[in-house]
Amino acid sequence: GYTWHAAPDGGATFPTADGGWIYVSNSEVPINGGASAIRFDAGGTITDAYRILSGTTVNCAGGATSSGTWLSCEEVGRGRVFECDPTGATTAIERPALGRFKHEAAAEDPATGTLYLSEDERTGALYRMVPDTPGDLSSGRLDVLTENAGVAGWEPVPDPTAVSTATRDQVPGTKRFDGGEGIVVRDGVVYLGTKGDNRVWAYDIAAGDLSVIYDAASSPDPDLTGVDNIALLPGAGTDGLLVAEDGGNLELVVVRPDGTTTPVLQLTGVLGTELTGPAFDPSGTRLYFSSQRSPGVTYEVTGDWSQF
Question: Residue 287 burial (CB < 10 Å; 0-12/13-18/19+)?
């Protein structure tokens, strides 16, 4: 009896104690966006659906934490981040320490608990929030990535609440990213997609090196344009990223650290939409994603995703 939300965007899955899982999804609707969840049993049958966040606006992407919570991000000026319980048992909590800006996505480095956050602005920035206590997002330091003479570094944001000055404009030398979108962390590397210039970036956390692994303008096989949400391909030893297109050919495209690409899925017969919310179930055999508009639809695709 639950009506799934309109404009589905970022999503993630969470395992449950009974062997099933929960898929959560944001709604990019203004004023009454929020997030909802679908619960599956161990066999993949839907057993429940419900709201986990209400009263927020333009909830775009976000990210899962190692604590088993979902971070839902508002994509508006001075947008907020809310930490949500995928089961719906506890009320979502605003996390001001993650800053007030036009949030897109968030990703946790499981080795340290540090969160990395993207900003969907033409002159956006890349942020990290270092919690005072790993796993506790109630307090911490918000930093912004800088680049001076080609050297990347981090500097604290003086006013994360951006009362008078946007967070991206508070620190001299802030590195600019043209429309920050999906962000994930794997094996000590932060991968960031930027839609404005159709790039996928890699930031090596330990080395402090920033590089571009995919650029549609220079790629010999520019399969991917409209770079948006990113998911990690499942499977031990897998290093591929699954990138969703906002526009382009409405494809999901695998991007590897060496810049090679493989389109693996295409949505046809729909105009004026984008692909959003790619996420795999705990077994890595079921992929969830959405077509955001015309109308908004959420799909499940079952198969051997390890082949990519």
Answer: buried
